[in-house]
Each structure stands twice: as structure tokens, then as C-alpha cells.
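Q: Convert this sequence to C-alpha cells.
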Amino acid sequence: MEGVIIAIIIIVFIIAMFFVAIKAEVKPKDADDASNASSFKTKKMFDNNGNLLSEQRAPYHFILYYPNGSISREIKCENKKCYLTCYSEEGNIVFVFELKMEVFFSGYCEVCLSGQAQGYYPNSHLKCVGKYNDGKLNGKMDFFYENGDLQMTLNFKNDVPVSGVIYTPDGKEKELTVAHINNIMVDYGLGNTDIDFSWVKDLCKA
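A:
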């Protein structure tokens, strides 16, 4: 009889341990992510003179610096959305791009422009807004005067402007020629949408 009781106690103990193990196994994924973020060790890269070039503050938070120490670019991902913010050397936001970002198990980062992009004047007023698809401008992009009035609209297909309309301050509409559109592309820096992300890859591999 005593042997039966001992056997029952052992079986009950084993079953209890089994359920404890299951409970630990199905721990919410968010808890793991939060733990990884809080335990992340900041990575920094310096030039030969000891000046800070870039740093990774969290698994999905990357910063690139100007030679004067101010932030040049910042990539931050929150709530499954990633954004690239570009700053002037004076610290003003110049552009904000939505990103599609994939981080492979090898630690290699693949980043491309995909989604809404917004440009700003030095006074933080909206300058332009458009949309990228896999790194290329597609569809309508609106440009604004500093007072917020619509200045012009360009239509893009795979980074190439196909048509455009400009509005005078009094609201009159004028169709743009190809030459005008090309000049606008240069003035707004839209001809160089192939942004270098090698510094992000270097931080991921460090």
C-alpha cells in the first residue's frame, strides 16, 4: 500500500512538472522581444580620429552622424513600422521616409524605401509628400509653398516623372514641360533616391 502511495505521488509530481514546462514554452513572443530590446548592447563605429560615425542603440534603431556630431540619419522601427529620418547639419528634419526592412538571421540588413515620404522646410512646414514602392517614386507627389498652399503636382512611374502641373500663388494652373520637371527634380534632390544604407549593414555585422 505504501508503495502505491509513493508511486501516485511521483506520477502527480511528473504531471505537475509537465504543465509547468508547457506554460514556460508558450510565453508570449512580446515578452521575448522586450527582453531582447532591454538587454541589447549598443554598438558604435568610429573613424580613425575617434569621431563617432554611427551607432545601433537597439535591435531596430540605427543612427548616422555628421562630422560635427549632429545626427545625419536615423532609422527606427516601432509597432511593425520603420522610418528613415534625414536631418540637416543644423538639426532640422529634411525628409521622413517609410521603409520596408528585413533583418535576416545572419545579421544582414536589407532596407529600401517603400511607403509614404515627406519633405520639410527648415521651419518644419511640409514641403512635399509622395509615395515610394520598392525604392522608386510612383504615383502623385504634391509640393507646397511655405504657407501650405499647393505649389505643384508631379506624377511618377518607377522614379520617372511622366507629367506635372504647377500652381501660381493666385491659384492658376499651368502644365509643366519635361525640362521644367527635370529642373525641379534637381532642385528638390529627387534624382538621387538611391540612398546608401551600407552603414546600417556594417552595424548589423559588427
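The chain is about 25% helix and 45% strand.
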